[in-house]
Automatic annotation (TrEMBL), chain A:
Belongs to the class I-like SAM-binding methyltransferase superfamily. UbiG/COQ3 family. This is Ubiquinone biosynthesis O-methyltransferase, mitochondrial. Pfam families: Methyltransf_23. Keywords: Magnesium, Membrane, Metal-binding, Methyltransferase, Mitochondrion, Mitochondrion inner membrane, S-adenosyl-L-methionine, Transferase, Ubiquinone, Ubiquinone biosynthesis. It is an enzyme of class 2 (transferase). Transmembrane segments: none annotated. It is found in: Mitochondrion inner membrane. NCBIfam families: UbiG. Mg(2+) binds at residues 200, 203-204. It comes from Rhodofomes roseus. InterPro entries: SAM-dependent_MTases_sf (IPR029063), UbiG_MeTrfase (IPR010233). S-adenosyl-L-methionine binds at residues 78, 113, 134, 199. The keyword DNA-binding does not apply. Pathway: Cofactor biosynthesis; ubiquinone biosynthesis.
From TrEMBL, chain B:
Its main location: mitochondrion. It comes from Rhodofomes roseus. Its EC number is 1.14.15.45, 1.14.15.46. This is Ubiquinone biosynthesis monooxygenase COQ6, mitochondrial. It comes from the Eukaryota. The keyword Membrane applies. Pathway: Cofactor biosynthesis; ubiquinone biosynthesis. Residues 20-274, 383-432 form the FAD-binding domain. NCBIfam families: Ubi-OHases. FAD-dependent monooxygenase required for two non-consecutive steps during ubiquinone biosynthesis. Required for the C5-ring hydroxylation during ubiquinone biosynthesis by catalyzing the hydroxylation of 4-hydroxy-3-(all-trans-polyprenyl)benzoic acid to 3,4-dihydroxy-5-(all-trans-polyprenyl)benzoic acid. Also acts downstream of coq4, for the C1-hydroxylation during ubiquinone biosynthesis by catalyzing the hydroxylation of 2-methoxy-6-(all-trans-polyprenyl)phenol to 2-methoxy-6-(all-trans-polyprenyl)benzene-1,4-diol.
Length: 338, 558
């Protein structure tokens, strides 16, 4: 716990009160994250209340000016991060000729908690064979309906077989399935996907450690795990809950739970301890000043710029880049080769 | 039988609409530039199918082969920023350059006060502080369209469907948000991921999108024509100067095309435009020469003569007009040794020592090229939005479908090209990020880039037009003493420089700089040339101050 990070209101009484409240929240969420770690992977990470909420909202997924407009606007930045990171790693692996245009082409990608399929459609257009899974049946229904109206997507109904095959049209195959990460792991087994994404999901699950472990197990050796979530900071509370839900009503109140937010350093720490097998090296082998090397993992803040109406990726090494991770951020980690 | 056949075809194809990613309605410069920009990008053409639909016959433009000295009457001033865009997309190399002319200098003056600003390319700087060699380039619209068509013909990703009308646009019946279905006159139906309205002022795409447009018709008609004139002599600057005089009836512009040809854009009152169009081309030539030279009072008189003759069912004869001009010149004491004397110019042979002031005025017009006189009404309009929403989703407007502007700053086509550039950029970004190019999210940056930018230009030009057509006493008085005029002429300059001054549109900083610089100049020049008025004021102020000092010194004395 770092009291220096707490806000400093003028009045002592308020300070005491808010500090206490903050500590309580902090402890509660810390406890959730830690206790989940103690338990084993048999637990479900799916929260029924969360699923009910998103099912109610599912019809609005593709209303670009409605409930999910912020996610629509965030989508290009997520894709940009994924593309840049994959390209960087391909060049790191010695593929100098790797082109930015088709860096996703032919990869098997899993999107956990795909919602209305915002990210899946983009991934599929860029040539990835994409499987989108969601614990809400109505989300899957909306995603399927939307994809089937778009001829640029090579969409097919869910087949519980192995990963979808690439097609002649050069577009990646797109499949949706009403299931959870643990069921994908149970039915298809580990090490299935080149890339596993889970965007804005971590803050909605129970047992985040189980969830992360399931996602991690699904990644092929040398493959990539991309996450985006919200950090547990006063700033994040102010922006994502107080402003977005209560003040501006951009998002339905109750969408976010502060205690479930996860800090970047908690993810770094998790993968610093996480090993694919007991004898293998952890996914993040070393930290420099609390930061992993760029070939193992990376955190990038994303910030909404209201006057541009766009999200933007905080530039690497920018002044206050750490501060930029204080609210929404993207996280990438690579599974070591075995 | 035929009818039933076509009906069946219609129904059959309605069942199977053709999937298209970008459907551009309208084969004007903006639509063609967009198609060509999209087709030029390998990334875009790999993943998007682009179709351009045009009602007219584009093969006529593609095969356009005019004689060397004859020029089309629709000419546009292509700014450096627009040219940079056309070069970037590879279309500029298809423009027949020997049919274009650079504008190296501009002379703009007021019809009542004769207050004048001149500005040249040399004064304008690129962001790298390099002087430009030309302010803009005059290009026949047909030359540009032909270049774009030739460029597009080499692109497999873009198909052009001409001699085909858009019969109707309807929204697809589908759960969620249906896509626009474009019914063509040949029976085909295109299902459009993105429907682009490049279909002009009465845009059917705009009405489908449910986007309102606000604006007003000016009580003004623009006459265009191609003029033949004397070549410039070795003692004069070459024919690379554009001239524009602001008469109370509207501005008259002289735009260079070659040594002996230039283009006319004369905005004037509709009855006068009608009368001029109906009269002998020689009379129009005479009126053009007079309109750049005679005092405003006499121009008003000549206008009335033309109108009276037209109302009487006859037309003014060329000789009668020349006599009138000669008489007016005499009464105004116009020196026949200067370039201001139409009569003297008409008698002198071209060449030799040019008369005094010839660099301040356009060359003497000898005749009008046959069949080039035309006119069209002017209006200002701006769509409420550029991107459709709700029922009108998956639509976007460019060019005249989004805005129309008075031609006095020569910006209409450039705004359209700017739209095409921004939209193509936006589509490219969306494709790169795997986005749906018809989605609002993908198109929002286009509207953000262009709407305010275009609005600034539209309102500046609208304001100028209103100022110059105003007849209210104080405005006219302010104009006649040259106070307001200098400020406003500088607004024109700023408007022209806004796009001309930056070598590239994607460099907003440079625009800010040139405008800031020009407003500084305004201050300097206003101070300078309002001298006659200023001297008096300074004198008065000085006298008052002196008096005050005297009194103070007096009172301080015991």
């Amino acid at each position: 716990m770092k009291p220096s990070r707490l806000p400093k209101p003028a009045s002592r009484a308020i300070r005491y009160h808010s500090a206490q409240r903050h500590q309580r929240l902090y402890h509660a969420s810390r406890a959730a994250f830690v206790s989940a770690a103690a338990s084993t992977g048999s637990q479900s990470s799916v929260n029924p209340d969360e699923i009910a909420l998103f099912s109610r909202l599912s019809s609005q997924w593709w209303d670009e000016r409605g409930e999910f407009q912020m996610l629509h606007k965030m989508n290009p930045v997520r894709i940009q991060f994924i593309r840049e990171k994959l390209l960087e790693m391909r060049r790191e692996d010695g593929e100098d000729a790797a082109s930015a245009d088709d860096v996703l082409k032919g990869l098997n990608v899993l999107d956990v908690g795909c919602g209305g399929g915002l990210l899946c459609e983009s991934l599929a257009r860029l040539g990835a064979n994409t499987l989108g899974v969601d614990a809400s049946a109505s989300n899957i229904g909306i995603a399927s309906t939307h994809a089937s109206s778009d001829p640029s997507l090579n969409y097919s109904l869910s087949v519980k077989s192995t990963s979808p095959a690439p097609t002649s049209r050069g577009k990646g195959a797109l499949t949706y399935e009403h299931t959870s990460a643990e069921d994908v792991l149970a039915t298809r087994g580990p090490r299935q996907f080149d890339v596993v994404c889970s965007m804005e999901v971590l803050e909605h699950v129970d047992n985040p450690r189980t969830f992360l472990r399931n996602c991690a197990d699904l990644v092929k050796p040398g493959g990539h795990l991309f996450l985006s979530t919200i950090s547990r900071t006063p700033l994040a509370y102010l922006l994502t809950i107080f402003a977005a839900e209560h003040l501006l009503r951009l998002v339905t109140p109750g969408t976010h739970t502060y205690a479930k937010y996860v800090r970047p350093e908690e993810l770094t720490q998790f993968f610093g301890d996480y090993r694919s097998a007991p004898e293998s090296r952890p996914w993040i082998s070393r930290l420099y000043g609390g930061v992993p090397t760029r070939t193992e993992a990376e955190t990038r803040g994303i910030i909404y710029v209201p006057w541009k109406g766009e999200w933007t990726l905080v530039p690497r090494g920018a002044v206050g880049a750490r501060w930029g991770e204080g609210c929404n951020y993207l996280f990438w980690v690579r599974r070591p080769l075995e | 039988m035929v009818l039933r056949n076509s009906r069946r075809r219609c129904l059959a194809s309605a069942a199977h609409p053709e999937e298209s990613d970008v459907v551009i309605v309208g084969g004007g410069p903006a639509g063609l530039a967009l198609a060509s920009a999209l087709g030029n990008s390998a990334e875009v053409s790999k993943s998007l199918r682009v179709v351009l639909v045009e009602a007219g016959d584009l093969s006529k433009i593609r095969d356009w082969a005019p004689a060397q000295n004859s020029f089309s009457n629709r000419v546009s001033s292509i700014t450096n920023a627009s040219r940079a865009f056309l070069k970037d997309i590879g279309a500029w190399s298809h423009v027949q350059l020997d049919r274009t002319a650079p504008v190296e200098e501009m002379q703009v003056w007021d019809g009542i006060s004769d207050a004048r600003v001149a500005f040249s390319a040399a004064e304008m700087m690129t962001p790298e502080r390099v002087a430009l060699d030309e302010m803009s380039r005059l290009v026949e619209n047909l030359n540009l369209q032909r270049a774009l068509l030739r460029h597009i013909s080499s692109m497999p990703g873009v198909s052009i469907v001409d001699r085909t009308k858009v019969q109707s646009i309807e929204k697809e019946e589908r759960e969620g948000n249906g896509w626009p279905l474009v019914h063509l006159s040949d029976g085909r139906v295109l299902r459009a991921r993105l429907l682009v309205g490049a279909d002009g002022f009465n845009s059917p795409v705009r009405s489908y999108a449910g986007i309102e447009s606000y604006g007003w018709a000016y009580d003004t008609q623009a006459i265009v024509a191609t003029m033949n004139h004397h070549p410039r002599t070795a003692f004069e600057p070459p024919n690379t100067v554009a001239y524009q005089r602001f008469l109370p009836t509207g501005p008259i512009a002289f735009l260079p095309l070659s040594h002996t040809s230039s283009s006319l854009v004369w905005s004037t009152k509709p009855p006068l435009a009608k009368a001029l169009q109906a009269s002998d081309p020689a009379v129009l030539a005479g009126m053009i020469n007079a309109a750049f030279r005679l005092p405003e009072v006499s121009m008003r008189y000549l206008h009335n003569r033309v109108l009276e003759a037209h109302a009487g069912g006859s037309t003014l004869l060329s000789d009668e007009l020349n006599k009138e001009i000669a008489w007016r010149e005499q009464s105004h004491n116009v020196d026949p040794r200067t370039a201001y004397s139409v009569t003297a110019l008409s008698r002198s042979a071209p060449g030799g020592i040019p008369p005094a002031g010839s660099d301040l005025l356009p060359p003497f017009v000898t005749s009008i090229q046959e069949g080039t006189i035309a006119s069209f009404p002017l209006r200002m309009s701006h769509a409420d939005a550029y991107v459709g929403e709700g029922r009108g989703a998956r639509t976007v407007l460019v060019g005249d479908a989004a805005h129309t502007i008075h031609p006095l700053a020569g910006q209409g086509l450039n705004l359209g090209l700017g739209d095409a550039e921004a939209l193509a950029h936006c589509i490219h970004t969306a494709v790169r990020n795997g986005g749906d190019v018809g989605s609002y999210t993908a198109l929002a940056p286009y509207a953000r880039d262009r709407y305010f930018e275009n609005h600034k230009m539209l309102s500046a030009v609208d304001k100028l037009h209103k100022l110059y057509s105003a007849t209210a006493e104080p405005v006219v008085w302010a104009r006649s003493v040259g106070l307001e005029v200098l400020n406003e002429l500088d607004t024109i300059k700023a408007a022209l420089m806004m796009s001309a001054g930056s070598a590239r549109r994607t460099d907003p900083a440079s625009v800010g700089w040139s405008v800031a610089a020009s407003s500084l100049e305004t201050v300097a020049r206003s101070v300078n040339s309002a001298k006659s008025v200023g001297d008096t004021i300074v004198g008065l102020a000085g006298a008052t101050a002196q008096g005050l000092l005297k009194r103070l010194s007096n009172s301080s004395r015991p």
